Task: inverse folding
């Protein structure tokens, strides 16, 4: 039982992590937030389905389509909602992304309809039972893909020139600019990358639950935001840890306490973390500079 | 009073709308306008937080829903007559707003936005899961129609007239508040909190008060909605509802009450006027928000004050805060 | 109707000075910024506060204004302890400050900025304002007329309808002082009021500070412009390394050996860059 819950928690955590990393990248660099991330996740998943129309029966094509579609939408988000407002007002991008979120949902609704679609063919990657827990190949693939991709991202941030530019930009936007870093390009890369991961998550989510629908990104993106906050929003490593923690906590709550309140727990954690560490990792002291 | 009217054309325009029933006899039209009236109060009350004080509360539907459920439960459970349930639900929601305000004081900008979104979800989830009290996902049916001692509101036309009274009263009270020293203090807090402190504004009490007042009016709007529709369910008070109210505030103009009236009216009425475009309605809605924030940062109200101003704004805009990142680091 | 300068602020003890800071200390993250500093000021005096960068003068200033919380020490204002009170309480007792980097309410009009200064002297409540009671209307009218009088005094009246952010730099500085005066202070704390001013603007400022003092307000000035500070101050307090190293008339301080050592040493360093 416990092992099964932990496994379920890992799967859910993997899906959260693919979303929460995007939130953290954006908040980390711009100190601004997007509310369209869940819909990029959803639209990415649908573009994965579109890729299947061209390459039928290729799971890899679906994955690639989802990543590419979401990455393009991420670039559009940055271009439409964030680039015009680099120097404020700081809540303007949030408002534009609310609009973008509605647009994406409406577009997918128009094109694909409101009904829930399954993944078009059966994904049978085998199924094993080890000491009482059943694991399917798809579950392993979900966790494995997420971990591999996230590890790659971590290495890129820690060890590449691009990662250095990203860290510098997050640490101090103007200083990075003065040092000759093309901050606009760094921001664009963060959006493309974060959104690509969200698209990957979207497709895995749809395939795993067998459900693609226009509102599929709404609740999970709020949970991923909670996870990113739990890990210290703006910190990519924190976002990943927070995502797996939240996934596991939720499944434990659902398994041992009450399935009804698993979502409440997620948002209660979100608010508590914000209150206990008011500004997350930005950590402003009690006294303001004058 | 006459002075207030002169300064406030909206105080003339709103009651004038009461003559509409002499020309129109269409329940559907009145229904749309009643709904618009409810959203007018909601967006004015949210504007108090977002536009006037700079408090980015993104979960306004939580207050709206609290008022609706409080009123419904007080009438159904305790048999309270409508006027009492109406006021009580406003006050209860205000208490809830004040309770939320204390933790919210510690949060700013996106962190406040995230926390209030979380709060909205928590409220909705509780409404969904407390089956015994709230009726769960199925909601509460059979909420009694308002009985106002002498008159009973039944037809959409009755509600239309009641909504005019409601919106006018809310607008009158709020515009009085905001034109005077309290409104000025709120704007001062929005412009520069440290400077506001330095001239003796007690930031804490103002933020708490403004949360309470905003929640009060949102609660009243919720009560009005519940007794008009006579059926409520948690789905009416989710995040998309909060986003819709934010859109109205942004469209009308941040920090402008009259703008909120216009914004709510337009976003409620336009989709109905273009019924043939029904399928594209959400799409138009979303694009409107995106374009408004980009092209008319002051909303419609800001534009009417300074038409064409947005063209010049691009080039030299020193009105912007120097840099948000500087704030974050200091 | 409108509370003017309070009379209950009468000196409780005739021997007590108006401002009495004792052993004020403050450290940031283990780094001591201010250590056991005393500062006593007489009613109606103009006091200059100087010191090299990092001497702790801004820290002392912020402790007195209430922006920072003191680690230890006390600050008696008219015999009443100020450390521990909120900024708003200090303002209503008569302590007000300006900012080195000018903090106005940019989107509000010039007149409204000054009205914000009267805020702490007004008393109508939310309900009275919401229901448009006569009382709140009268108070608004009072704020408007007093505000215009104050703007006139500071030569800002023609700008009263402009947004504060659109004012010229010099006018913004003056508006900040007007707003501070509107709070009816007894102690006005000016944080580098001459920063960014040219010589003639500096001279005007000098006259203005003296005029403010003539109206009975005690003034504490932190300033880098040594000429201005020495001309305007009755007495000067010198801080260095978070401690007070000298205090006296401008003439005394200028000849003080430690001050010269600190200052000239630093100046020499600074010019060497």
Result:
């Amino acid at each position: 039982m416990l092992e099964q819950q932990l496994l379920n928690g890992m799967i859910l955590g993997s899906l959260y992590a693919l979303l929460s990393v995007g939130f953290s990248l954006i908040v980390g660099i711009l100190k601004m937030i997007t509310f369209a991330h869940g819909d990029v996740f959803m639209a990415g998943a649908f573009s994965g389905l579109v890729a299947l129309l061209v390459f039928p029966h290729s799971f890899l094509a679906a994955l690639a389509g989802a990543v590419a579609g979401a990455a393009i939408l991420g670039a559009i988000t940055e271009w439409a909602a964030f680039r015009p407002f680099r120097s404020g007002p700081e809540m303007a991008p949030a408002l534009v992304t609310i609009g973008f979120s509605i647009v994406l949902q409406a577009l997918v609704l128009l094109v694909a309809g409101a009904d829930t679609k399954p993944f078009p063919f059966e994904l049978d990657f085998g199924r094993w039972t080890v000491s009482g827990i059943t694991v399917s190949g798809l579950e392993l693939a979900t966790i494995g893909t997420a971990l591999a991709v996230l590890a790659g991202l971590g290495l890129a941030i820690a060890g590449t020139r691009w990662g250095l530019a990203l860290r510098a930009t997050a640490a101090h936007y103007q200083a990075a600019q003065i040092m000759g870093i093309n901050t606009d390009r760094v921001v664009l890369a963060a959006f493309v990358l974060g959104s690509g991961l969200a698209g990957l998550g979207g497709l895995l989510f749809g395939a795993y639950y067998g459900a693609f629908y226009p509102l599929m990104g709404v609740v999970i993106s709020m949970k991923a935001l909670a996870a990113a906050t739990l890990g210290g929003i703006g910190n990519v490593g924190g976002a990943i840890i927070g995502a797996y923690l939240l996934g596991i906590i939720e499944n434990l709550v659902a398994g041992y306490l009450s399935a009804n309140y698993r979502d409440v727990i997620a948002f209660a954690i979100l608010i508590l973390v914000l209150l206990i560490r008011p500004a997350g990792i930005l950590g402003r002291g009690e006294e303001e500079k004058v | 009073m006459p002075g207030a009217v002169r300064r406030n054309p909206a105080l003339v325009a709103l009651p004038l709308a009461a003559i509409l029933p002499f020309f129109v006899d269409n329940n559907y039209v009145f229904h749309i306008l009643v709904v618009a009236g409810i959203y007018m109060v909601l967006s004015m009350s949210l504007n108090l937080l977002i536009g006037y004080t700079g408090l980015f509360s993104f979960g306004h539907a939580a207050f709206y829903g609290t008022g609706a459920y409080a009123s419904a439960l007080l009438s159904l459970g305790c048999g309270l007559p409508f006027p009492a349930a109406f006021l009580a639900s406003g006050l209860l929601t205000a208490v809830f707003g004040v309770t939320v305000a204390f933790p919210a004081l510690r949060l700013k900008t996106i962190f406040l936005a995230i926390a209030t979104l979380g709060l909205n979800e928590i409220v909705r989830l509780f409404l969904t899961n407390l089956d015994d009290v709230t009726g769960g996902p199925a909601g509460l049916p059979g909420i009694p129609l308002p009985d106002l001692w002498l008159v009973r509101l039944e037809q959409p036309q009755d509600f239309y007239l009641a909504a005019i009274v409601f919106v006018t009263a809310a607008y009158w009270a709020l515009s009085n508040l905001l034109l005077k020293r309290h409104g000025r203090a709120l704007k001062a807090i929005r412009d520069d909190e440290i400077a506001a402190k330095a001239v003796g504004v007690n930031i804490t009490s103002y933020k708490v008060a403004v949360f309470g007042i905003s929640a009060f009016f949102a609660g009243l709007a919720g009560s009005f909605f519940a007794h008009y529709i006579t059926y409520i369910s948690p789905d009416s008070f989710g995040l998309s509802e909060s986003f819709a109210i934010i859109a109205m505030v942004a469209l009308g103009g941040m920090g402008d009450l009259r703008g909120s009236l216009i914004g709510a009216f337009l976003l409620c009425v336009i989709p109905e006027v273009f019924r043939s475009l029904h399928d594209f309605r959400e799409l138009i809605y979303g694009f409107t928000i995106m374009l408004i924030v980009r092209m008319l940062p002051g909303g419609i109200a800001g534009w009417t004050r300074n038409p064409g101003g947005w063209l010049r704004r691009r080039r030299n805009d020193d009105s912007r805060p120097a840099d948000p990142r500087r704030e974050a680091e200091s | 109707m409108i509370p003017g300068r309070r009379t209950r602020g009468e000196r409780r003890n005739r021997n007590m000075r108006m401002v009495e800071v004792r052993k004020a200390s403050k450290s940031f993250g283990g780094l001591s910024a201010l250590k056991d500093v005393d500062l006593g000021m007489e009613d109606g005096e103009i006091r200059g506060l100087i010191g090299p960068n990092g001497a702790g003068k801004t820290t002392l200033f912020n402790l007195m204004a209430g922006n920072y919380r003191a680690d230890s020490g006390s600050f008696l204002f008219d015999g009443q302890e100020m450390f521990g009170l909120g900024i708003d309480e200090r303002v209503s007792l008569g302590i007000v400050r300006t900012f080195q980097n000018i903090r106005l309410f940019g989107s509000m009009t010039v007149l409204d900025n000054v009205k914000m200064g009267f805020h702490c002297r007004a008393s109508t409540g939310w309900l009275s304002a919401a229901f448009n009671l006569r009382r709140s209307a009268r108070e608004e009218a009072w704020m408007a007329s007093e505000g215009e009088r104050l703007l006139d005094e500071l030569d800002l009246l023609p700008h009263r309808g402009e947004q504060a952010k659109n004012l010229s730099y010099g006018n913004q500085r003056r508006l900040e002082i007007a707003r501070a005066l509107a709070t009816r202070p007894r102690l006005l704390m000016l944080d580098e009021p001459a920063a960014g001013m040219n010589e003639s603007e500096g001279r005007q400022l000098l006259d203005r500070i003296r005029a403010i003092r003539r109206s009975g307000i005690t003034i504490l000035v932190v300033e880098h412009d040594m000429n201005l500070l020495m001309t305007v101050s009755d007495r000067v307090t010198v801080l260095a390394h978070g401690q007070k190293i000298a205090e006296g008339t401008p003439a005394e301080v200028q000849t003080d050996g430690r001050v010269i050592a600190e200052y000239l040493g630093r100046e020499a360093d600074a010019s060497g860059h």
Remarks:
- Residues 42-93+234-273 of chain C form a domain with the Rossmann fold fold (CATH 3.40.50.300).
